[in-house]
Design a protein that fits this description.
Helices cover 34% and strands 18% of the residues. By secondary structure, the chain is of the alpha+beta class. The strands form 13 sheets. Strands 5-4-3-6-2-1-7-8-9-10-11-14 form a 12-stranded mixed beta sheet, with helices on both faces.
Length: 942
């Protein structure tokens, strides 16, 4: 064998000549190799070694053996031995000896070895070559020195005399390791199974003492290794790229796609394999192994029309992989919604989803196949219902696909789910004998047991009747009716073969007393009973009252026409029992009649009240009101007191019909009736609201009085007269127990009472009332009062009164012109239509004082220290006597603020107010005054 069988000397001389002629070329080669070493290939050593072994294997799958010998990594492979073209490719950063259908035989990917060595060698049956950083530095010392010894290792190649290729192998790559090899083989062992799957050119990978084998049969690849076997379902397609994508290329490159799905455990954290792992993250259930153009680093797909073509072909082939699974397992391969992990992932997810939507791979209930775009799935796990509907609903999928494990996949493909409402809609107008309908009801019944929404939708289920008709709802249908009840015209009877308990839960009824009373026929007869009561009125009255005596009352029975004492016919709810106590408290012209005495004697009192005949106060209850339409007196005004409509109405009707002088008796009746009393005491309820405003105790509404023990309201409200009612009943009716404001009427009433000169009110009560009014000032709109309460305690004309907003102004204003209020000045001014004092009054300090820094005032300093208040910075003006000119007169005041400058008389009161204002502790002004006068702990604590 020649000492240089591959002509390495000529290769070296060519490179050296280029470097000597252009040092720039040397730097470019060094930089390019450094980029590959540090960037693209630093973690792809085994991948590149495996690719080279796979490419070398040729037609028969090869073997790759990885071992460590004296800290030297060796990768031996079977297949084509090293040749001159391969050596040239190894020594070139810009060329590859690969043909179009290979993936890595000694191309630029060989640079991955530089991650672990600077002295790689390749030993083959046909010869051996070596690369060496040290020998390269010796060959170009000046160029190497200029780069600090950093030279391109894979540009200069030398022959090697090594010939000891392992038995059974054709080539071995030998890599003396730069660092210790701890963990290297373990890393390779972890990658081996994935590489065997990705590289069909390999059938076996050996890593140290471990080995992995690949076999394939009937589309299933089995990878057998130390930890057992892994099974992968695979589907492959391939072809040549269209000429439009490879213009200028002599041979059209072959493309191939392999989808691989792990049959034993799901994929996680997978990437695109092209055909070995890239950095393109994928979120698909199956692995894609495809011949795609990639960037030189082999980390990313090289974007372009060729890559898009192959990815489109991969997406189109995906349904065939899915279809190779058993029917009920196929949805496991559907990509579920989620954020794509890369652009490639996004393109594949979109393409696969569209391909799956249009391919026929889903099993139909009738045994055929359909595409998701034309399929429907029952949203009920009912085998029986699927069988019953397979001829009724086109595209209905097999029962197995109704189960939860398939739901997300079918939703991702846009397969509509047929809930109960859709099933009922599909059944509209469908024929079928009554027995078939019985089976349908039986299949739907379990759903009705647990799902109220489904039950509501089933209210439109068709029902076959005994007369051959098919009605569109169970409502109003009678099931299991005795023939003796057929005397009521208009009843709808279900066919016996279709009768099912479900129909009763959906509105159909059995024809007992309850069911007959609630039938549409009876309801309609009651509804029309006032049209011509003389025709069959008494017969209908007896029929209905007999049913009520057995079944109890219904609200709609209030429409039943009954005879009154004056011989006329009236609705039941417009008649009062002849002996009812209610008659004694109603106005004489109340629009009620009195029930005919003979009817009252014939039927029990409870039967008559069950149909709506009045025996006491009637209570209306609605737990889902939408508007004030409950026939309650002044209900709209009560409704308007809420910012948000009330969620419940519980009220007594016809309160406006009680005689004004009968309210004590009426309230006593309500207190004795638990149902009525519940309405009276309902929190924020209609009845309590109405009674407080419109009932009458001694001619005035209850809200105009107070209880005797409500001392805090003394003078503002008078004590309620004695009306023989207990305090809790009076309070529930609205008699005042505390100071409250509910609405604008209360505000208007309070303003009137404050402005009433005859009322003697305590100063504290006036301040509380004004504070309460300020709280609601921004939510009410009332007429301002003519008179208001001032600091003197009297009610004065509002034309002469100001609202105090700046406290120093009180020193120049007469108390009779100042509203008795503390705080909330702007709100009260707006409510009472009064000016603020600061808008009407101004003043100027007369004379000059002394500017004194706060810290120089010893008593002030001690007072702040005792109270733990930070001493203010800055100064104030202290006067022996502080005089202010205001309102056409001079006034001696304790303090004043002029142009943001604080003035104070040299007194404890003056200094205390100035200090409280400056420190923002106005409420502590009196404490400050006491401490300034005597800054001792005994004053603070006493």
């Amino acid at each position: 064998m020649s000492a240089d069988p591959f002509g390495t000397e000529a290769l070296r001389e060519s490179v050296l000549a280029a470097w000597r002629g252009s040092p720039t070329r040397f730097r470019e080669d060094a930089n390019a190799e450094e980029d590959l070493r540090l960037g693209g290939y630093r973690d792809r050593l085994l991948v590149e070694l495996a690719q080279n072994a796979s490419d070398a294997a040729g037609g028969a799958p090869g073997v790759l053996r990885l071992s460590l010998v004296d800290n030297e990594l060796r990768a031996a492979n079977t297949g084509a031995p090293l040749d001159a073209a391969g050596v040239a490719a190894l020594a070139s950063l810009r060329a590859s000896s690969k043909v179009t259908d290979t993936v890595g035989q000694f191309g630029v990917g060989f640079a991955a070895v530089l991650a672990v060595t600077e002295e790689p060698r390749v030993v083959s049956r046909t010869g051996a070559v070596a690369f060496s950083a040290a020998r390269t530095r010796e060959a170009v010392p000046s160029l190497a020195s200029a780069r600090g010894g950093d030279v391109p290792v894979l540009r200069l190649v030398w022959p090697s005399d090594e010939t000891d290729v392992p038995d059974g192998f054709d080539t071995e790559v030998r890599l003396p390791l730069k660092a210790h090899a701890d963990g290297l083989l373990a890393e390779f062992a972890a990658q081996a199974p994935d590489l065997l799957l990705a590289l069909p050119g390999l059938r076996r990978i050996e890593v140290g003492a471990q080995a992995w084998e690949r076999t394939e049969s009937d589309g299933v690849v089995v990878l057998t290794g130390p930890s057992g076997a892994q099974r992968w379902l695979v589907h492959r397609v391939g072809g040549e790229l269209p000429s439009s994508l490879v213009a200028g290329v002599e041979s059209r490159p072959h493309w191939s796609v392999c989808w691989a799905w792990p049959m034993d455990e799901p994929l996680s954290g997978d990437v695109l394999h092209a055909p070995t792992p890239t950095d393109e993250k994928l979120s698909l259930p199956a692995r894609l192994i495809a011949t795609l153009p990639v960037e030189p680093s082999r980390r990313r797909v090289l974007a372009g029309s060729a890559a898009s073509f192959v990815l489109d072909q991969a997406a189109s082939a995906y349904p065939a992989l899915v279809a190779s699974l058993p029917a009920i397992e196929r949805t496991r391969l559907v990509p579920l919604p989620g954020f794509p992990l890369s652009e490639v992932d996004d393109q594949l997810r979109i393409g696969i989803t569209e391909a799956l939507r249009t391919a026929a791979w889903l099993p139909l209930a009738d045994g055929e196949w359909t595409a998701p775009s034309t399929a429907k799935v029952l949203d009920l796990a009912s085998f029986e219902l699927v069988e019953l509907l397979e001829d009724v609903v086109p595209g209905l999928l097999d029962y197995e696909l109704t189960l939860p494990p398939h739901a997300k996949a079918l939703a991702a493909l846009g397969v509509p789910r047929l809930g109960v409402a859709e099933v009922v809609s599909a059944l509209a107008g469908v024929g079928g004998d009554p027995a078939w309908w019985h089976e349908v009801y039986d299949a739907l019944s379990p759903v009705a047991d647990v799902d109220s929404t489904a039950r509501e939708a089933m209210g439109a289920l068709p029902v076959p009747l005994v007369d051959g008709r098919l009605v569109s709802s169970p409502r109003g249908v009678l099931v299991g009716t005795d023939s003796e009840l057929f005397s009521v015209p208009g009843l709808r009877i279900a066919h016996p073969d279709a009768a099912h308990p479900l129909l009763m839960r959906l509105g159909a009824t059995e024809a007992g007393a309850d069911e007959l009373l609630d039938s549409d026929a009876v309801r309609e007869a009651v509804h029309r009973s006032m049209d011509d009561p003389e025709l069959d009125g008494l017969d209908l009255v007896r029929t209905v009252l007999r049913l009520v005596s057995r079944a109890g009352g219904r609200p709609w029975l209030a429409e039943l026409a009954l005879p009154s004492a004056d011989g006329e016919w009236r609705r039941a709810d417009e008649l009062v029992l002849p002996d009812s106590a209610l008659l004694s408290v109603l106005e004489s012209d109340a629009p009620f009649g009195v029930l005919d005495a003979s009817v009252a004697e014939e039927w029990p009192r409870s039967v008559l009240t069950d149909v709506g005949v009045i025996d006491g106060f009637s209570v209306v209850e609605d737990d889902s009101p939408t508007e004030p339409d409950h026939d309650l007196a002044d209900e709209g005004y009560w409704w308007d007191t809420f910012d948000v409509p009330p969620t419940r109405v519980l009220g007594i009707r016809d309160l406006d019909l009680v005689a004004r002088d009968k309210w004590p008796e009426a309230l006593a009746m309500m207190a004795a009736d638990p149902v009525a009393w519940r309405a009276v005491t309902e929190p924020d309820g209609y009845t309590g609201w109405w009674l407080a405003r419109y009932a009458a105790l001694e001619g005035l509404p209850p809200g105009s009085w107070r209880l005797a023990d409500a001392d805090g309201l003394d003078g503002l409200y008078d004590v309620v007269p004695s009306v023989d009612l207990p305090a809790h009943v009076l309070a529930a009716a609205g008699v005042r127990t505390s100071l409250t404001v509910v609405d604008e009427d209360d505000v208007t009433d309070l303003l009137g009472r404050l402005g009433d000169p005859a009322r003697k009110l305590s100063d504290a009560l006036v301040l509380r009332v004004h504070a309460l009014l300020a709280e609601v000032a921004d939510v009410v709109s009332v007429e301002p009062p003519d008179r208001v309460r001032v600091l003197t305690g009297t009610a004065e004309s509002a034309d002469d009164v100001l609202v105090p907003d700046l406290p120093w102004l009180l020193g120049v204003l007469p108390p009779s012109q100042v509203l008795a209020s503390a705080g909330a000045s702007a709100e009260l001014a707006e409510l009472l239509a009064l000016p603020l004092a600061s808008e009407e009054v101004s003043g100027a300090v007369v004379g000059e004082g002394d500017e004194v820094v706060w810290s120089e005032l010893g008593a002030v300093r001690l007072a702040c220290d005792l109270l733990g208040v930070e001493l203010p910075g800055g100064s104030l003006i202290v006067h022996d006597e502080l005089v202010v000119a205001a309102e056409d007169a001079e006034h001696s005041v304790s303090w004043w603020v002029e142009d943001a400058v604080v003035h104070a008389a040299d007194t404890p009161e003056g200094l205390a107010r100035a200090l409280a204002w400056t420190t923002g502790r106005w409420d502590d002004r009196h404490t400050f005054a006491a401490l300034i006068a005597d800054p001792t702990p005994s004053v603070l604590l006493g």
